[in-house]
């Protein structure tokens, strides 16, 4: 910071303050006028990438499709050394069978964003929660 004192013709004091922010200026210059680029990033399988500028200082964001969870960095920044911050993201299938939703000995089959239960004999329903009673007979009234 430079501080300068001057006097005017009527002997009143006026002050001029000059501030140099070279670091900030360099950052903004690199961010907006740089031709330095990082390598291209692709969207992860079963996910999306937001951002298409790979210049120093720019960000790229990532998200996964329903039924998947992001592993790695959801935001990456192009650094001065032309590398990306963070870790390469990927989308991992969420295992809907992890909570053991099938009851009464049913077997869970995981799929993308859903599951199915294979029920043992005598059981039915989405989670094998309904009993089938073969001894019941229908009465006609």
From TrEMBL:
GO cellular component, one term: extracellular region
Keywords per UniProt: Calcium, Cell adhesion, Disulfide bond, EGF-like domain, Glycoprotein, Membrane, Repeat, Secreted, Signal, Sushi, Transmembrane, Transmembrane helix
Cysteine pairings via disulfide bonds: 64-91, 119-128
GO molecular function, one term: calcium ion binding
Residues of the EGF-like domain: 93-129
Transmembrane segments: 12-33
SUPFAM superfamilies linked to this entry: Complement control module/SCR domain (SSF57535), EGF/Laminin (SSF57196)
Domain of life: Eukaryota
Stored PANTHER family: PROTEIN CBR-CLEC-78
Record-given protein name: Sushi domain-containing protein
